[in-house]
Amino acid sequence: xxxxxxxxxxxxxxxxxxxxxxxxxxxxxxxxxxxxxxxxxxxxxxxxxxxxxxxxxxxxxxxxxxxxxxxxxxxxxxxxxxxxxxxxxxxxxxxxxxxxxxxxxxxxxxxxxxxxxxxxxxxxxxxxxxxxxxxxxxxxxxxxxxxxxxxxxxxxxxxxxxxxxxxxxxxxxxxxxxxxxxxxxxxxxxxxxxxxxxxxxxxxxxxxxxxxxxxxxxxxxxxxxxxxxxxxxxxxxxxxxxxxxxxxxxxxxxxxxxxxxxxxxxxxxxxxxxxxxxxxxxxxxxxxxxxxxxxxxxxxxxxxxxxxxxxxxxxxxxxxxxxxxxxxxxxxxxxxxxxxxxxxxxxxxxxxxxxxxxxxxxxxxxxxxxxxxxxxxxxxxxxxxxxxxxxxxxxxxxxxxxxxxxxxxxxxx
Length: 413
Hints:
This protein is α+β, with helices and mostly antiparallel strands. The protein contains ten helices and 18 strands. The protein has an eight-stranded mixed beta sheet, with helices on both faces. The two termini are 28 Å apart.
């Protein structure tokens, strides 16, 4: 463990109080102005550490610590996203600090929320840790303010300890990752790294190099609205068409609640409308891109068959690419993950490769020319009111970041 007074606890408790929830229905970038409020705070803190940092017109914060070695070292970067998920309330977060956790369930004071050791298996290894949760009325925001916290603490350490030899190190904080738009306007040239790591993983030791392929489907159904009292043989209720379509989706497969491992899914996560016009939104995920396309073709076929029973109704189906499996890219650059795992071993962590049933900013960045695996930040139960994180795990992640920088320097010429 580093001989260092970590700032993780204080930073995290401060950061989660910023409401940075992203908004899929917004047309702005970032999708919510409140993300910019927090990003400006991070920019101010970085400048307060005498670190070169800027915030661009899209809200991204980029920072740079210059090389202090005579070796030629590949420039690397570390990235975390500031936004929190729209899946649970994120305003007025009240974090609770559970010092010296001694096992068992953690009861939260609001909304009858309970973090159970049976469901949160990672708790079994956290006896003696300091655990942070919300009060149960909101999510916590550890996804991904744990990663933000760890990067900021690592920057603080590196800036204060010039005896640590390293190459050029880049840092970035992104927006809107939770709604699949995290790096739409990310400037890789401005960032300046050749390889990077996102800190947005769960368990200590995780190194993630394979993810889902992900698309968003938006189906718009147009019916015919009339006065309800005079609707016979005239009204075409688009809500009923949507309901019939959704009812045709397989009950025991194809959904997040019935799949795991390497299985993909097609998930309805939004429906809104009236008798005249209804929108249905879906997430489609699979590790195999060919299977992803098969899902989409089957969904279009189901919707076409459904609409035939409603003469006069129409539909439009839009498929929006969100991200692709980064394994295809990272397999060409194995040293990126290998150096991270070497760093973990150096500080006593047993690393392992994890397949992710989701996506990260690293997916799109890898295809944009910046190979970027995802590594652990310690967040658990993300997107829920029972989200939690261990202070000690965050401190380990800080040490890992610093050690990764050292490993890359040692590999330099």
